[in-house]
Amino acid sequence: MYYLGFMAKTMFYKSSFYVLDMSLQLLSMIWHVESILSTVFLVYWQLSGKLEGLKAKLEVCQNFRGVRSKTHKFYDGARWFIILYVVTTVFNVCYSAKFYFEKLHSVWAMLISEMFYYKKLGFIMSIISSYMYSVWLTTTYVFVTYANAAYFEVSYFNKQIRNLSGTRDFLKEELLKNIEKFRLISEAIAELDMVFRLYTFAMLATVIPILIFTLMMLNQHMSSFTDFLICAPFILFCTCAFCSVTIAPARVHEECQNLKHSLCKNKNIWQPYDPEIYQLANTLSNHCEQNGLGISIWGFATLSRPLILGTLSATAMMMSLLTDLKPERIIEVTVEDGN
Question: Most buried among 103, 255, 316, 338, using CB within 10 Å?
Answer without folding.
Answer: 255
